[in-house]
Every structure is written in C-alpha cells, then in structure tokens.
Amino acid sequence: MDASTLALSRIGLAGLAVMGQNLALNIAEKGFPISVYNRTTSKVDETLDRAKQEGNLPVSGHYSPRDFVLSLQRPRSVIILVKAGSPVDQTITALSQFMDPGDSIIDGGNEWYENTERRIRETSERGLLYIGMGVSGGEEGARHGPSLMPGGSFQAYKNVEDVLLKVAAQVDDGPCVAYIGEGGSGNFVKMVHNGIEYGDMQLISEAYDVLKIVGGLSNSELADIFADWNRGELESFLVEITGDIFRVKDVFSGGNDELVDKILDKTGMKGTGKWTVQEAAELSVAAPTIAASLDCRYLSGLKEEREDAARVLKEAGIREAGEVLVGRSIDKKRLIDDVRQALYASKICSYAQGMNLLRAKSIQKGWNLNLGELARIWKGGCIIRAIFLDRIKKAYERDRELPNLIVDREFSREMVQRETAWRRVVGLAIESGISIPGMSASLQYFDTYRRARLPANLVQAQRDLFGAHTYERVDRPGSYHTEWTKLAKQGKTGVGALN
Ligand code: 6PG
To answer: Which CATH number fits domain 190-449: 3.50.30.10, 3.90.79.10, 1.10.1040.10, 1.10.630.10?
Structure first.
C-alpha cells in the first residue's frame, strides 16, 4: 500500500440527517475511518464537529460527490441514508458516475423492496454491487448499535461484513446483523419488522387504555406497572419506554400534569405498516393484529369526526367507555395481571402473523429466509427488541418448518395458560365499550386458527348457490355443484352433482 492508499477511508456515508450522522459516528468509533458527504454542506460540517467533540473520531468530510467517492479504499463501499424514493435514485446517479465496477452501494433507508430490486438491476449494468439494508433502532440505535438487515449482493455484504459486525448491537448470541438474502429481502424484512412494531405499539396502548379506564390507574401507577412488566416475560424496549413516558411531567402546566395526557390522539405514520398489510393481502397471509393497528392509526386521524360521533351517540343514549362498570368492584391486582397475560398472548399471535408473512414471501421469491436468525438479529438494537425474541428464535431452531408460532410446544402451552385471563380482558373491554382491536384481533386469530372446523362450509354453499363456484366435500373427493335454490323450493334434499 502506498501513502495515498493509507489515507483513504474504509467506507463512505452519504446523507447526514439524524440517522446518517449517528451511523457515521458509530462506524468511526468502531475504528473504521469514514468519509461523509451531504448535498447541503452544513451537515458535513456539523458531522465533523460532532466527530471532534465525541472523541476525535476518524471522519473526513467531503463537499462534492467526486471528492467523496475518490476518498474511499477500493473496492469502494458507500452507505446512503437519504429519504426513500427518488432522493435515493438521485444520490445513486450523483455518486455512481465516479464509482468503478466492483464498488458497492448500500441503501440504509426504509425503502420499498421493489425499488431496491430495480436498483440492483440498474447498477449491475455498470458492474456495481447493491444492498438494501434495513436499519432499526432510531437515533440511539444508529449511534450505539442498531439492528441491521442487509439483503442483495452477497459480495457487497462480504466487503463490509467486518464493519457491520462491529457497528451492530451486540447481544448474548452475537451481533444483530446477518446477511438476509438476495434482492430486496433486507428491505422486506425491515418492513415486516415495522408492521410488528405497529402491532406491539397498538397492543401496549390498549393495555394502557384498559388499565386506565377499568382499573382507574394513574400515570404514576402505570409507570410502575410497565417498569415491573419490563422485568419479566414482557421485557422489551417498547414496554420500557412506555413506563418512562408516564413519568414525564408537562412543563406548560407547571409540572402538575403528565405530558402523555396533553398529547393529541392522532397517530402519524410513514408507510411501512401500510406496506406490510398490503403485502399480507397480496400473499393471502392473515395478519389481523397488524391490520388492526394500521386501521387504528387511520381512525385516530379522524379526530374531529370522532368527536362528533361521540356527541351524536351520547345524545342517542350511549354510555361512555367504561361507564357500564361504575359501581362494580374491580380487583385491581387481578386486572393488572390479566392485562399482562393478555398482552403477552396477543403479542405471540402478532409475531406469528409477521413471521408467516416473511415465510410466504421467502417462498415466493426464493429468498430462503431463516426465521430463527431473523428473530435473533431483532434481539438487540431495534425497536421491537425483546427478551421474547429469544423464545421465537428457539422455536424455529426446534422446527425450521414450524407452520405457526401458536403450535410451537412452548408457545402453545403459554397461550393456553394465559387463555382465561386473555378472554377476561377482551370480554371486559367489549362489555364496557373500550376498543381493543389489536387484542381482540389476536384472540380471534387464535380462535380461528385452532379450530379444526370453521363455518366456511356455509360460505362455500353460498358461493355455490349464487355463483356456481362449486365446493368440495368432507367425505369424498371431487368438486361439486348443487342447484340449491331449485331444490330448496322443491323442499328436496340436495344431491350435489359432480362438477
Ligand atoms: C426503526 C423504526 C423506524 C420507523 C419509525 C416510524 O426500526 O427504527 O421502525 O424505521 O421509521 O418507527 O415509523 P412510522 O412513522 O410509520 O410510525
């Protein structure tokens, strides 16, 4: 190596918004000299200032795409962290003209997986390698250890494997990164991670609602309960931060009230949860808990309509949520324990849906996803990190072809143990008009999946009656059609003709 080669950076990162800056500093802190670039040059200076303040980290700033690309060791690897969609295409155009065959581009945004597949094809025409890498963990994760889901060119992954292994969050069984598979698999896995994230957040918010309305619990009691839950089977990032949220006071009310009560009840979203539900529908995979969480975000957005509906229905005589319970004595301790169990059982169903969506896509695309390994790399760094993911990993290690987490020998036992409490919570909420779409969707998923016989026979009969869609029988092979209406009018027993 000559002197000029020695001065070159190991890796580059373009796009220095919050995630980009933090990931760049993380990479530098792990001992990999990094070049950074951003179209708005003040962001480059900001990153350099932070690199200096946070321990003189080896970051070099560049103000033009050419200088940036030429500052990298070959084969060059460039991570881009810009807004998904056309900004990614623009960044690729700006940088790739200075790159050589064998160099790689790694998009770390929440990108639609088909965009990644298109870019893999486009960049390969110029000999470039491409990765779509899911990055989870927000600002904190990016800076100190995210969960990374790289998919696409295996060679491009190998070129940066040493960096990713050090930069990712570290858990008891290794760094939270693994090569996911070909094509847009890394983005797809991250998308499903986000769908599961939507489900988890919805389920937690329902637990809060039930405890608050039925149990009359204060924010400080809720803070203690979530902190307590975070020491057991529900231990997870989202449960932990929920406990913290309840403790924060509102400055505008002079610190008397808690901030959580002042927040407008309208949820925002950026789209990955919607994609998850769309993909589930495309692949004929039932994902009712995740879909319920998405629907709830839509309904939450109708604030003014909901206020009107509350007024109209009150005038029509409806009782407020929880009013039916007034005067009934509630065993708070049991309620808290029931809600904990309902949350856990509901989560199992939600993860089962996400995992089955991943498996269906893997089969369709030939990605050969390893579900146990995905659960492992979600154990740390990411938003859905949880102690429970280790159980999921083990379930898939026991049986790689496990059709559903519900029928794993450990999870099935746990669900049955929690069944009564789960039904009590859902029943109480329904009776008292508290909406719990996530928990009830999970329970309905469980109750539908576990039944050997469903009323789908009647739906088939209806379809055959009005559309001659035919049906199969339980007792003999073949496909049948019956003249239902004619026979019913004649009062005769239907004899299905073989189609
Ligand atoms: C993560 C998160 C992150 C996501 C936000 C916002 O894994 O770090 O999933 O990527 O963008 O959670 O998502 P919504 O705006 O759709 O809620």
So the answer is: 1.10.1040.10
